[in-house]
Design a protein that fits this description.
Layout (H helix, E strand, L loop, with lengths): L5 E9 L1 H5 L18 H4 L2 H6 L1 H17 L4 H8 L5 E6 L5 H5 L4 E3 L2 E8 L6 E3 L18 E5 L9 H8 L2 E7 L20 E6 L10 E4 L2 H13 L6
């Protein structure tokens, strides 16, 4: 038996598009990071094993850029939802713009730039805030090299069951800034209930999941509009 839907719970699922509107370079756009770097060279366990210096430099640059960026109107609108609702943010993004905007319950499924972790013990995490670089020779308490706390290609996503648990009980689901091309994270949206209000705001999308209303356009324009309606007790038509 499925758990009951909580009409006061809203899940906000975000992807690279919301961060792009804060000036962060995405991976898959026409001018994205994968035009300058090969996935195999910087975002796989094999790349880490063969050239840790290059991998660290790639993510050190991403960390500095994320630190220099600021939350935008879409992040701030999501934070305002907490005035009236229980809000769970599930994000594919590895920056901390949601947290810096003020969101208090953020689930990262692809890791976080501001942390490093042991190469041999995933439970050993270390804060690398304010754009601080991870260097070759930075080691954990057990002596192994620190690596970016990022889910690389070929690794399991983080917090899947926690994210699924919230989706199956949410009365509303808002998806922002993702083409839904990265699995298995994108597939989790199918766990949302049939009778939940479900909206996608994005510029481009591979395939719209069944039951979702699609709004194409800017996150900084459309997210505040949708959230304004919800805070005023309206359903988005």
């Amino acid at each position: 038996m499925k758990p009951e839907i909580d009409s006061n719970k809203i899940v906000v699922f975000t992807g690279a598009g919301i961060s792009a509107e804060s000036g962060l370079q995405t991976f898959r756009d026409s001018n994205g990071l994968w035009n300058d770097f090969r996935v195999e060279d910087v975002a796989t366990p094999e790349a880490w094993a063969s050239n840790p210096e290059l991998v660290l430099q790639f993510y050190n640059d991403r960390r500095k850029q994320a630190f220099d960026a600021a939350p935008n109107a879409a992040h701030d609108a999501v934070t305002r939802l907490e005035e009236k609702y229980e809000v769970i943010v599930i994000t594919q993004n590895v920056d901390d713009l949601h947290e810096r905007s003020g969101s208090t319950n953020v689930i990262h499924v692809h890791g976080q730039l501001k942390y490093a972790r042991s190469s041999n013990n995933d439970s050993l995490l270390y804060l690398y805030d304010e754009g601080k670089p991870i260097q070759v020779g930075d080691v954990c308490d057990e002596g192994s090299q620190l690596r970016p706390h990022i889910v690389w290609f070929g690794e399991n996503i983080q917090n899947y069951e926690l994210a699924r648990k919230h989706l199956v009980t949410a009365g509303r689901v808002l998806v922002v800034g993702t083409s839904l091309s990265v699995y298995p994270a994108a597939g989790i949206l199918k766990k949302a209930r049939f009778n939940a209000e479900k909206i996608i705001i994005t510029r481009q999308i591979d395939k719209k999941p069944s039951g979702y209303k699609l709004l194409r356009g800017s996150a900084t324009t459309l997210v505040p509009s949708v959230i304004g309606d919800w805070l005023n007790g309206k359903k988005v038509i």
